[in-house]
Amino acid sequence: MKKTFFLSLIAIVMLGVSALSAQAQMGMKDNKMGMKTGNPMVGGAPMYKNKDIVDNAVNSQDHTTLVAAVKAAGLVSTLKGKGPFTVFAPSNSAFDKLPSGTVEMLLKPENKDMLTKVLTYHVVAGKLDSKAIAKAIKKGHGTAMLKTVSGGTLKAMMQGSSLVLTDEKGGTSMVTIANVYQSNGVIHSVDTVLMPGM
Q1: Does 28 have pLDDT greater than 60?
Q2: Taking 50 as the threshold, does the pLDDT of residue 9 lie above it?
Q3: How far is 110 from 34, CA to CA, in rounded Å?
Q4: 3-state SS string for the chain
Q5: Distance between alpha carbon 140 and the CA centroid of its chain, in Å?
Q6: Which of 72, 85, 78 lies closest to 183, judged by CA?
């Protein structure tokens, strides 16, 4: 009886060790394939560090309006480029806050230049994660001025533990998901579309 119990116990332990080993091997395989990202999920989709900004953004259900706008502005190849870029990515709900008809108007071919200016106002050259931005805010005694690819400026500051951006028109946008690392930069999802001083 003791022998049967002992053999059963050994068999259970061996099965457990075997299952853990298989799980560890699968985890290692996932890491090699980029499946375990260390990034937050965005729009219900995993964001992969080994993919570029566009290849990740197209998978986010929360950024379909932004992706459509990037395509309409002809910025896909730019944002697939080497970079690095820091993108403050407005969510669909951020675009929904705009006055009725604004998105449709911006997506018209004749408004491509205006759309491009608005979108590139959300992009800063370099890879600025929240730690780098916080360091710049501290160095600026509570405010960091970020030069955008459009030539405009965003003002970054902390509001409690939240990173808040102020645009050239005085509007504010809060970072809702920070530090989504990409192969060519970093994305921070924001809750309001930032407007340049046209």
Answers
A1: no
A2: no
A3: 40
A4: CHHHHHHHHHHHHHHHHHHHHHHHHHHHHHHHCCCCCCCCCECCECCCCCCCHHHHHCCCCCCHHHHHHHHHCCCHHHHCCCCCEEEEEECHHHHHCCCCCHHHHHCCHHHHHHHHHHHHCCEEECCCCHHHHHHHHHHCCCCEEEEECCCCEEEEEEECCEEEEECCCCCEEEEEEEEEEECCEEEEEECCCCCCCC
A5: 25
A6: 85
User: pLDDT tens digits for 170-191?
Assistant: 999 999 988 888 888 888 989 9
Query: Per CATH, the architecture of 53-190 is what?
Result: Roll (2.30)
Average pLDDT, integer, range 38-42: 67
pTM of the prediction? Answer: 0.76
Report the chain's C-alpha Rg in angstroms: 22
Return the ∠ at Cα 190 (arms to 184 and 196), rounded to 5°: 90
Domain ranges of the chain: 1-36, 53-190
